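It is worth pausing here to work through a concrete case rather than discussing structure prediction in the abstract. The textbook approach is simple: state the sequence, then state the predicted structure, then interpret. We follow exactly that order.
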Amino acid sequence: METIRLTMAQALVRYLVAQRTILAGQEAPLFPGVFAIFGHGNVSCLGEALETVQDIMPTWRGQNEQSMALAAVAFAKAKRRRQIMVATSSIGPGAANMVTAAGVAHANRLPLLLISGDTFASRIPDPVLQQVEHFADPSTTVNDAFRAVTRYWDRIQRPEQLIGSLPQAVATMLDPADCGPAFLGLAQDAQAEAYDYPARFFARKVHVIRRPRPDTEELVAAAGVLSRAERPIIVAGGGVHYAGATAELAAFAEHHRIPVVETIAGRASMAWNNPSNAGVLGVVGSTSANALAAEADVVLAIGTRLQDFTTGSWTVFQNEDVRIIGLNTARHDAIKHQSLSLIGDAKVGLTELSAGLGDWRAPDTWSARAKSEYGAWMEQVDKATTPTNAELPSYAQVIGVVNRLAEPTDLALTAAGGLPGELTKNWRAKSVGSFDCEFGFSCMGYEIAGAWGAKMADPDREVITFCGDGSYLMMNSDIYSSVLSGHKMIVILCDNGGFAVINRLQNFKGSASFNNLLADCKVANPARVDFAQHAASMGAITEDVASLADLESALGRARAADRTYVIVIKTHAHEWTPGDAWWDVAVPEVSSRAEVRQALADHQDGKRNQRVGV
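Step two, the predicted structure:
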């Protein structure tokens, strides 16, 4: 057997380079790049190996381990899970910083390969720098924290262990049902050890994402239930995007006259003006989608994990006899709430289910009802996004200005805080796949880091990221990363004086404003950050605009700019777009505040509408 003598780190890199994928019918690297912050746990061995392949698998210097891994998550999302970025850190705090990003990838079912240095397999240098010692378990390191937020986890302590572990890690990340992050902890001494690897281990391999077909009996059952529906709806989740099933969704909905409501992850599965589009479902959804869901008798849930923001904590489906059909590659998601499971790929599943339905269509009265509800919702969006003479604009009005000027190819991106709700409700997606709101983990800091990764994934499109002042202060260093690497983004930084949306929730549940808005915090100096100057110090072009008219003209300059452009605008902290579904957030059962007691009574009323597991 032919062998190649390599260190474990060299073998790891060589294997990754040999993995290929298919993008738009063309062969491409499965692992097109690496985000890295080097330290003593990964610089001398893994860093040495990565340096030799920088022309074919470039390494991008991160500023923060968490944010560079978030950029990798956004890259995978933009590539619809067809390509995977690597993020590597040293041991200890560097590794721990990436745990949050692993949680984002895990919650959103996105592939990410995380590689961290570890302690020495020999244990001779114990405790090594940055090692966290567990007195009763010397085998435990910081890297064990990744077990809770990864789909695949391994600690490599011998060079030959790569031979069994790497194919399993790759297979997990490419499995449409089990997709998520994989983690490898590399013992420092093992990284340097040489081994005679079988040459065939490094043979070029082209991976094709499988498309599991639904079971025939499940198809018959699903078609039978759907063909008897009087008020059916389709819930389009993120899996529609990952399966490349947007065209099939549009064709299915049009042929069978079924209204489509989108989840947050499923946003832009069709353009806003598609006749089948009925709005966004759930807590940060539309009155149209929530009204239709309340009456629906059959729900075809495609590629969604039915998270509580989608289901209004399981209150949006009010029909006691409603049947849910779960079309999903993941059994875990397909059977939720006693759904009739249709386990399979969304693209082939919709095609085969449509064939089973033949020429059946939902009643015209229901289609007309959906169009009427959606038309009324669009009037609300027009009202929310239209500029007024108010001293400070609302989030919705800022979004309206940007949306009107956006090109169909632009990507709108956001994450945590109040912007996900306002953007999800008010952004009219002009084309399929033009929206990215990270709300599976609702991770503050994804906004700028994610925009960097999304731009890297598709350099030809304009990436417009909406960021609140709270998220900016939490994680902003990838403005510098984007300037260094030449991946331009446009940042719309809305400064409303703190964590305004949580203040809203705090007040809604009866509590006084406390520790969210800067005005309600314990501070010695109520200084406001000069965000424009701060971003400019990292090399971005910046503007601080005072009005929506100024924002409009600034956007033209931002689009023409040659590097990252940050536009700062102060926004209203208490003005929000209506349309919310109920959300189960606990309220104290004992309180001296009358407002809390009233909120508890309202909360208990809402719980009466919850579906409990059936």
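Step three, interpretation. The radius of gyration is 25 Å. The domain at 3-207 is CATH 3.40.50.970 (Rossmann fold).
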